[in-house]
Amino acid sequence: MNKIDILEKKLRIGEKKKEVEKLQQESSQSDFWQDSLLASKKMKRLSELKKEIESIEKLRAYFQKGQKKEFDELLKKLELRTLLSGKYDESSAILSLHAGQGGTEAQDWAEMLKRMYLRFIEKQEWQWKLVEETYGEEAGIKRATILVSGLYAYGYLKREGGTHRLVRLSPFNADHLRQTSFALVEVLPVIERAEVELKDEDIEFEAFRSSGHGGQFVQKVSTAVRLRHKPTGIVVESQVERSQTQNRKIAEQILLSKLWEREQKRQEKEIEKIKGEYKAASWGNQIRSYVLHPYHLVKDLRTGCKTKDTQSVLDGNLEKFIEAEIYQLP
């Protein structure tokens, strides 16, 4: 068995071809578009699977034509995917950004991170939606939630979760003093309802108007949705769609992922208690530093991966860091 055949087996291309056939049959049914959100989700999945199958076919073509450079680049990309073998690694992702303490400085840093991740997401040709966003009083954002749709989105992004630290000369005071800011990144997989217990009676529903900068109403009807899970107190919002029904479905999707995360943390905590050590997630547990003064350096504190080209990283060129994370961590 050659290298391409081994890769095809590891990526379960045979299974994915069968799934493509099934989705194509479903999409040809007359009632397929009755549930437009579900149909759109299935069509996205179909497109993603086709693209991965085409990648293997393209790899074979590069090999047969002797296009070594193109073959090596695509082979590396596909081999990296074989390391993403977690249960949800192929799933879409929910990316959340939260400004840390420090007011405007931290809020500006959270917005810089949002721009960085959106550029990376677009380079991967994934689709994204800004589900909700709360702006800072002077600049930046207090928080934002982004739904990232694409094959392996969670697998690639999950290790980005943690505290990100910025050191720079402040653009927000006349003395331009050196300032350290923090922002928290959270990454969750998109979870199906069947995998998490969620009772309708446990959900408190509220509709409100979507708003933008300065409190200007984007819409004059209450299409935005806020859900509160009464047993846990978890609150989620969605403002991205024009329909209240669609926003509720997206909000429920985020709530499912947060409930899944809560259960994972509970299990991890119990295991660590048995082992005799438990380290809670906190602002002090930073994963990466971005220094823009007095020198330029981005360094990941887990892998040791670093670069002096800070602007490139902030422009979304995260491949070097993400690959180091995937290769090093289980």
Quote the beta fraction: 15-25%
CATH fold node name of the largest domain: Alpha-Beta Plaits
End-to-end distance: 27 Å
SSE arrangement, N to C: HHHHEHEEHEEEEEHEEEHH
Number of strands: 11
Provide the structure class. alpha+beta
Spans of at least 5 consecutive residues whose pLDDT stays below 50 are: 213-220, 277-282
Largest sheet, spatial ordering of strands: 2-3-1-5-4-9-10-11
Q: What's the number of helices?
A: 9
Overall mean pLDDT: 88
Instruction: Please describe the biggest sheet, giving its number of strands, its sense, and whether it closes into a barrel.
Output: 8 strands, mixed
What portion of residues is helical?
Answer: 40-55%
Which descriptor suits the 3D outline? globular
CATH A-level architecture of the largest domain: 2-Layer Sandwich
Number of domains: 3
User: How many whole angstroms does the radius of gyration measure?
Assistant: 22 Å
The level-1 CATH class of the largest domain: Alpha Beta
Note down, in words, how this protein is organized:
The protein has 330 residues and is an alpha+beta fold. The chain has three domains: 3-82; 93-191 and 301-328, Alpha-Beta Plaits, CATH 3.30.70; 193-275, Double Stranded RNA Binding Domain (2-Layer Sandwich). Helices cover 42% and strands 22% of the residues. The chain has nine helices and eleven strands. It has helices at residues 3-10, 13-27, 36-65, 68-82, 104-123, 153-157, 244-275, 310-314, 319-328, and strands spanning 93-99, 127-135, 141-149, 162-169, 178-189, 203-208, 224-229, 234-238, 286-291, 297-300, 306-307. The chain has an eight-stranded mixed sheet with strand order 2-3-1-5-4-9-10-11, with helices on both faces. The chain has a three-stranded antiparallel sheet with strand order 6-7-8, with helices on one face. A hairpin with a 4-residue loop joins strand 7 and strand 8 (234-238). The longest helix is centred in the last third of the chain and has 32 residues, at 244-275. Mean pLDDT is 88; it is low at 213-220 and 277-282.
